[in-house]
């Protein structure tokens, strides 16, 4: 079983949606990287940390029926690729949508939730999941 | 660069080989390839072994030395190297062997691939396969390997109108081909309904859209083309070799409906071979999921982007079609012992180009292509073969 630091070192970004902006080309990325994959060395010293708003749209999605043991109590669950308004895409679960119709393009927002736990006394993993944004009443 | 030929091929049956250990199947395939090449052990200069995850499947690392040892080569002290790139481990091992012979470093090289997947539970096997994706930013967030391919499928259907039935047609074709391959894991034909009524794994993908977990091994023997006729009458030349990488996580790709690594690896292989897609008669492509074959035949350049499903439905990839794809049954029906898969593709291509593929023989096959993918497309390896 893995030790806690393996997961802790990702937490800042995973809990707070910290990405980075390359001030050489203006592109946004998530999660943080040491260099911009477009600008390479020209991005050194020009990386700025940014906090994503957490809102975006479903780019693709699937209902997962065959899943790892630690997620068995959640199955079937919806897994989506979400495109943030700032540009980067991520993979995460869509929750709180038992009675809603999901489609590609459905607006969602990120929320901090428990992802899984490693047995009754093991590490509990937290991170982002997504909930559909309901259109405001007219 | 020297020209390189395949002079021997060998493989095991693929399936749940509970009576055999990892080293048993590795040696079985290797010995078959060496016998086929008419060489003796003391002529072997080096060994490369493709393997994804023996450490997790059988808790054994150090696979290169293990296979050399049980092949009886320990006292010869040959260089033995394990090569890993998830699902592309076998194809990449071939490329290492190819470069070693082409460069003049070694003359006779054995390249093997093996995986023993059924010594762990299905859930453990699924977890190991998911480690080909990004553990920290995909798997932890709930992604499984099939789920990531389901995201590709859903998007391909959305953008290009690919249908559930067209994906099923990939499995139907490959099972039909597998029914004519005595070494295939599945040797029964299926129908569209078999696929569309099987349990959902990750929508829209169902059980029959997915390649199985398999045990198996495959191996080939390489040597310089100008030496090949000393050993056998029908050497098959490796005329092109291309490899490319891409982002580890699917969500970082420029377009999830295109495997750029496949496109680039193919471009490099075709340029080296001075051939085009029109020259290719048979192709073994990486159909770990039905949608993967649709992407592959588009990205390799056989069909336009978005036309892969329609081409499959129209029978253009069948044994009698424009380009016969996965004549062995592919990963879907022949089986997918991960590290062995890239070499099993070569065994099929060489068997076809020698005209020895029996009931599934493609008439007058002269040029063949093998396409091996790691993860959801972070590694791709493409090789081109031609009858000499």
Report on the architecture of this protein.
The complex is a heterodimer of chains A (138) and B (388). Chain A has 138 residues and is mainly beta. Chain A has 1 helix and 8 strands, in the order αββββββββ. Chain A has one helix spanning 5-16; strands at residues 18-22, 28-29, 47-51, 55-64, 77-84, 89-94, 107-117, 124-132. Chain B is α/β, with parallel strands linked by helices and 388 residues long. Chain B has 2 domains: 4-121 and 214-236, Thiolase/Chalcone synthase (Peroxisomal Thiolase, Chain A, domain 1); 142-211 and 237-387, Thiolase/Chalcone synthase (Peroxisomal Thiolase, Chain A, domain 1, 3-Layer(aba) Sandwich). Chain B has 15 helices and 12 strands. Chain B has helices at residues 22-36, 54-57, 63-73, 89-103, 122-130, 135-139, 145-160, 164-178, 192-196, 225-228, 260-273, 290-299, 308-313, 330-334, 338-353, and strands at residues 4-11, 46-50, 80-83, 109-116, 200-202, 205-206, 215-224, 236-245, 282-284, 324-325, 367-374, 379-387. In chain B, β5 (200-202) and β6 form a beta hairpin. In chain B, α1 (22-36) packs across α3 (63-73) and α8 (164-178) crosses α12. Classes of the chains: A mainly beta (138), B alpha/beta (388). At the A-B interface, β4, β5, β6 and β8 of A face α5, α6, α7 and β5 of B.
Structure at a glance:
The complex is a heterodimer of chains A (about 140) and B (about 400). Helix content of chain A is about 10%, strand content about 40%.
Mean pLDDT of chain B: 97
- From the spread of the alpha carbons, the general shape of chain A counts as globular
Helix proportion of chain A: under 10%
CATH topology of the largest domain in chain B: Peroxisomal Thiolase, Chain A, domain 1
Unreliable runs of chain B, pLDDT <50, ≥5 residues? none
């Amino acid at each position: 079983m893995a030790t806690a630091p393996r997961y802790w070192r990702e937490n800042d970004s995973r809990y707070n949606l910290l990405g980075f902006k390359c001030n050489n080309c203006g592109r946004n990325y998530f999660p943080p990287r040491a260099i911009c994959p477009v600008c390479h060395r020209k991005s050194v010293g020009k990386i700025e940390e940014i906090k994503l708003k957490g809102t975006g749209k479903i780019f693709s999605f699937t209902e997962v029926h065959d899943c790892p043991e630690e997620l068995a109590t959640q199955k079937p669950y919806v897994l989506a690729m979400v495109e943030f308004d700032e540009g980067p895409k991520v993979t995460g679960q869509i929750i709180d949508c038992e009675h809603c119709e999901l489609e590609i393009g459905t607006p969602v927002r990120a929320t901090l939730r428990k992802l899984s736990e490693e047995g009754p006394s093991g590490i509990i993993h937290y991170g982002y999941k997504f909930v559909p944004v309901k259109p405001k009443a007219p | 660069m020297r020209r390189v030929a395949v002079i021997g091929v060998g493989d095991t049956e693929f399936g749940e080989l509970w009576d055999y250990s990892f080293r048993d199947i590795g040696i079985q395939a290797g010995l078959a390839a060496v016998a086929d090449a008419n060489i003796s052990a003391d002529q072997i200069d080096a060994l490369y072994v493709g393997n994804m995850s023996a450490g997790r499947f059988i808790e054994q690392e150090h696979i290169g030395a293990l296979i050399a040892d049980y092949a009886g080569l320990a006292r010869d002290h040959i260089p033995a190297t394990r090569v890993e790139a998830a699902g592309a481990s076998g194809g990449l091992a071939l490329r290492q062997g190819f470069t070693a012979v082409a460069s003049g470093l070694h003359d006779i090289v054995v390249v093997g691939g093996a995986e023993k997947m059924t010594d762990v539970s299905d859930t453990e096997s699924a977890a190991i396969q998911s480690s080909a994706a990004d553990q920290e930013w995909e798997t932890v967030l709930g992604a499984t390997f099939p789920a990531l391919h389901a995201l590709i499928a859903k998007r391909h259907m959305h953008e290009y109108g690919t249908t559930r039935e067209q994906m099923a047609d990939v499995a139907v074709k490959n099972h039909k081909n597998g029914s004519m391959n005595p070494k295939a894991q599945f040797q029964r034909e299926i129908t569209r309904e078999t696929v569309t009524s099987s349990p959902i794994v990750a929508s829209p993908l169902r059980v029959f859209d997915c390649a199985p977990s398999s045990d198996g091994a495959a191996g080939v023997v390489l040597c310089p083309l100008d030496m090949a006729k000393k050993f056998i009458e029908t050497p098959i030349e490796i005329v092109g070799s291309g490899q490319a990488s891409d982002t580890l996580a699917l969500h970082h790709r420029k377009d999830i409906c295109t495997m750029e690594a496949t496109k680039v690896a193919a471009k490099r292989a075709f340029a080296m071979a001075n051939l085009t897609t029109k020259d290719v008669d048979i192709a073994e492509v990486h159909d770990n999921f039905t949608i993967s074959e649709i992407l592959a035949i588009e990205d390799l350049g056989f069909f336009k982007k978005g036309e892969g499903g329609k081409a499959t439905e129209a029978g253009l990839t069948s044994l009698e079609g424009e380009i016969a794809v996965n004549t062995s049954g592919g990963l879907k029906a022949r089986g997918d012992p991960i590290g062995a898969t890239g070499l099993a593709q070569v065994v099929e291509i060489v068997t076809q180009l020698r005209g020895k593929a029996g009931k599934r023989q493609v008439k007058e096959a002269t040029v063949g292509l093998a396409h091996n993918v790691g993860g959801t497309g972070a590694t791709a390896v493409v090789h081109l073969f031609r009858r000499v």
